[in-house]
Design goal:
- This protein is α/β, with parallel strands linked by helices.
- It has a single domain (71-444), classed as Rossmann fold, CATH 3.40.50.
- The protein has helices spanning 13-56, 89-105, 122-131, 157-162, 164-185, 203-217, 233-236, 239-248, 263-283, 290-297, 335-348, 381-398, 436-444, 449-471, and strands at 64-66, 83-88, 112-118, 140-143, 193-198, 222-229, 251-258, 305-316, 318-319, 331-334, 371-377, 405-411, 422-432.
- The chain has a 10-stranded mixed β-sheet with strand order 4-3-2-5-6-7-8-13-11-12, with helices on both faces. A 3-stranded antiparallel β-sheet has the order 1-10-9.
- It is elongated, with a radius of gyration of 32 Å.
- It starts with 12 loop residues before the first helix and ends with a helix.
Length: 472
């Protein structure tokens, strides 16, 4: 036997036992702690699944209603695609972009069948198309003006018409193409309602040829316009002629706001007002389709115009408990608080300071037209229905007449800041403009030079007096 080779058989049993015992203990410990770790892991997994199930099944507390989150909207209210949007110039793109995102967040995007974008500035057109929600990208036709890659530069209406040989064919072709696309996407159906958002710059004149081309193909479409009076006098002077051009090619009336007033509030009101009318056609008690709503607002006479007012409140929301990392956060507000805010909005929306024209002119109801109040809230449609029932009943008890007046409710999807959850409540009130031609002429008259000089002199005097006072 090699003296350097170890032979375990030479060891006595006690020594062998003492050698093997620690090894057995170590193996046993590993098995025990491994088993405990596995049992703890399984217990944690069962607890996690229980907490996840509880979070998914969580309900708001009594008296509360759940917010309608943009990321959770799955119900498509209107899939008809019967509305065609025509976006003209910068105003059309800006308001149109906001409107399309609101409709997308609210599950209303499929109501828009096709979109015609008329923009001569290639950079602005590219930015708009990049911003567009994915759902609309196959529904867009664009009109680009050859030779004006940087835009038409706010040229006058007469100057733009002198270039009709450049833009006329493109505008007419765009009108025909959007009609063809609309019928291709919607089983041959024609658009029932056309909404043209008219920027009052140079591109406005290009838009008339496109609208005329559309009306020549879709003979039964009802076109209505939306426009903002520019804050620049040179552009305001063209408004009456441009609106007359659109009336000539088939636009039945125009909703008007004034950028010299609160342009931010006005744009919010216009976007939510149109979006609310579309939403209400599928969710409100009143069976009032969007094309009927627009028709009832306007006088059946040339030059019909509509003004609107906007009042909005944000109501604090609360996160629904329990929560779980794999479950999307949900939020709620209390129903009675929403009822109160809706009534507050309805009480104040027609105050002059919230008017789209800055309160200029009378706001009496025009005969043979209907006033339309649109209530929007970021609540689930079924929950908003309960608010609608209570608000309508309360107004009836108060004696509010329903004659020539419609109160519509629509659910919109909200984007929530988890650190500060809010539920927007917006009310937009539409009403026909009394003596529209007279009021429009007054609104578009340039400010007299003497008034501008006096205003500047007054400001300089006041600044001088403040400067003198500070020096003494």
């Amino acid at each position: 036997m090699d003296p350097n080779q170890f032979d375990i058989s030479t060891l006595d049993p006690t020594t062998v036992f003492l050698i093997i015992l620690p090894l057995l203990a170590a193996v046993g410990a590993l098995l025990f702690f491994g088993w405990r770790r596995e049992m703890n892991k399984r217990a944690a997994s069962r607890l996690d699944r229980t907490l996840e199930t509880a979070a998914r099944a969580a309900l708001p507390p009594p008296g509360a209603v759940e917010l309608n989150l943009a990321t959770r909207v799955t119900q498509i209210v209107d899939t008809s695609g019967r509305i065609m949007l025509v976006l003209v110039g910068t105003f059309g793109e800006n308001v149109g972009d906001n409107l399309l995102w609101l409709l997308w967040r609210s599950g209303l995007w499929a109501s828009i069948g096709t979109i015609l974008v008329i923009e001569s500035d290639i950079h602005r057109l590219t930015l708009f198309l990049q911003s567009l929600p994915e759902a609309f990208r196959q529904r867009v036709v664009t009109v680009e003006v050859p030779g004006f890659a940087g835009g038409l530069g706010n040229r006058s209406r007469g100057e733009v018409l002198s270039f009709i040989d450049r833009w006329g064919p493109a505008a007419i072709r765009g009108g025909h193409e959007v009609c063809e696309l609309h019928q291709r996407l919607h089983r041959g159906e024609e658009a029932a309602l056309g909404i043209v958002l008219i920027g009052m710059g140079a591109t406005a004149t290009v838009g008339t040829s496109a609208v005329e081309a559309i009306c020549s193909v879709f003979r039964t479409i009802q076109f209505f316009g939306c426009a903002a009076l520019p804050s620049i006098d040179r552009l305001r002077l063209q408004v009456i002629a441009i609106l007359a051009d659109y009336e000539r090619v088939g636009v039945l009336g125009t909703i008007v706001e004034d950028n010299a007033a609160d342009s931010v509030r006005n744009d919010v009101g216009l976007v939510h007002g149109i979006g609310g009318i579309i939403a209400a056609s599928g969710l409100s008690d009143t069976p009032f389709e969007a094309n009927n709503a627009f028709r009832q607002m306007f006088e059946e006479s040339p030059g019909a115009l509509v003004r609107f007012s906007t009042y909005a409140i944000a109501l604090p929301g609360y996160r629904l408990e329990p929560t779980h990392p794999t479950v999307e956060p949900r939020y709620y507000v209390f129903k009675k608080a929403v009822d109160s805010k809706i009534l507050t909005c309805l009480e104040h929306v027609k105050d002059p300071q919230f008017d789209s024209l800055g309160g200029v002119g009378d706001a009496h109801q025009v005969p043979l037209t209907s006033e339309i109040d649109v209530v929007l809230a970021a609540l689930n449609p079924a929950d908003l229905k309960a608010n609608e029932d209570d608000v309508v009943l309360g107004l009836q008890l108060k004696g509010q007449s329903k004659r020539n007046h419609f109160l519509l409710f629509g659910s919109i999807g909200a984007e929530i800041d988890p650190a500060r959850p809010l539920c927007p409540v917006v009310v937009v009130s539409f009403r026909a403009m009394e003596q529209p031609n007279t009021l429009l002429r007054a609104l578009t008259e340039p400010v007299p030079a003497t008034q501008l000089l006096n205003g500047r002199a007054t400001r300089l005097t006041e600044e001088g007096e403040r400067s003198d006072a500070s020096n003494t």
